[in-house]
Amino acid sequence: MDWTFFEDKLHKRMKEEHIPGAAVAVSKNGEIIYEKGFGVRDFETKRPVTPETIFGTASVTKSFTALAIMKLAEAGKLSVTDSVRTYLPSFDIPGVEPIENIKIHHLLTHTTGLAPMERHEEFNQFHEHVAYLREEKHDLLGKPGEFFSYSNDAFLLLGAIIEKVTGRLYRRYMTEEILYPLKMNRSTFSIEEVKKMCNVSVPYVYDEEKKKHEEQDWPGLGNYEVGGGIRSSVRDLLKYGELFLSEGKLGENQFISGKSLKKMYHPHIKVDPDTSYGFGFKVTENYHEATLVEHSGGQPGVASNFGFLPEENICVAVLTNVSGATAGDIWLEAVNTVLDLPIETKRSILPEKEMESEQNIDRFIGKFSSKEGQEVTIAERDSSLTAELEGEIHSLKIADEDLLIIEETEKPIRFFFNKKREAWAIFIGMRMLLRENEKQ
Fold it and tell me: How many CA atoms lie within 13 A of 400 on its CB side?
């Protein structure tokens, strides 16, 4: 297996995206077939990245939390069909009636009906977040189970449920019952432990205006550690992936049943025509006769992607130490290399033909935003559509009646229309953003 082309592309990408350091590891049939560090873990010492270098994993953490929930379900401590209120009696969301309709399943799949919310990383105890959900008015998309929209604020309630059921702190339970048995000895939720470890990356953000990297502190996250708090190495992540590929076995012991694990990457709800979401995993079926099970992560100074292909017994982990790096593309290029596919092969095939733009393009125009901070403005310029994202203007093409494509990146923007054919929301970057005049 020749990794030359993969490495050449990665070196080029690191230069273009200002990635200081990256680590990649691949296993097949339980054996590591490729692992390598690229670049430096910090600019000050110029020490190189290795497969043991610790990075942030960000939202890769979500599947670990989902695994803990499935273990508790298998032990009869809870069921994913239980109402959240069974375990959190004070849980409430204004406008959701009856509140008992929100199940643990909806937290796992980001389908509670909540639009993205303002983050409160200062909340360190779960009761603070439960009160925040109960006492303030939040934008709603629809009924529980009706729409998918990534929600860190809903997902973190799983940590509160774990604490309620086990009587142990979330972090302590996860460390003792998940990380320790998997022998993930270079993985931790604790920033204090990270500071005591060797071979740790420094997180960076690249400032486009100043043309330089700025060092970041490790984010404390507060309650959001439930969906983003693990710091780890690519080697440790392969140990985690092997749990799924061995159908729940750790050596001779059955850590969890294969049946429970398969529920985690069952396609519970569609994200787009080719991709669904399970419990803490994105799932792309029929990828050249294989299934891609993966999750990305992003925080200040972190871009990550981890996942596996169950039919092929392949696991891949990618970690970097800069915000905004396309770790998911690096991950797929590694997968394509192992599968002997053209390295540019994409997860999904977008519509090839652009629809006639003279149709009523007014239906797309508007400003869409969320309380989490995302903002997209669709406008018409010289008879063409553009999108303004993060201060930059991008050209769009109409790919379908409800779908626009950003030409430079091929990123889709899906529209939701009411009966009057007015757009009330868009779906971009795993989140639904409401039209400004639709917000509560």
Answer: 11
User: Which pLDDT does position 287 carry in this prediction?
Assistant: 96
Which two three-digit tokens encode residue 260? 């429970």
Sorted by where each begins, the domain ranges of the chain are 1-209+217-349, 361-438
According to the model, what pLDDT value does residue 440 have? Answer: 47
Nearest Cα to 154, choosing from 89, 101, 224, 97?
A: 224
Q: Please give the C-alpha separations between residue 366 and each of 108, 387, 389, in angstroms, as whole numbers.
A: 31, 10, 13
Strands 366-369 and 314-320: unpaired
CATH topology of domain 1-209+217-349: Beta-lactamase (3.40.710)
Q: How many of the other CB atoms lie within 10 Å of CB of 177?
A: 18
**Could you confirm whether domain 361-438 is CATH 2.40.128.50?**
yes
Buried b (16+ CB within 10 A) or exposed e, 68-81: bbbbbbbeeebebe
Question: What global pTM score does this model have?
Answer: 0.96
Q: Which residues of the chain have pLDDT under 70?
A: 350-359, 438-440
Strands 366-369 and 231-232: unpaired
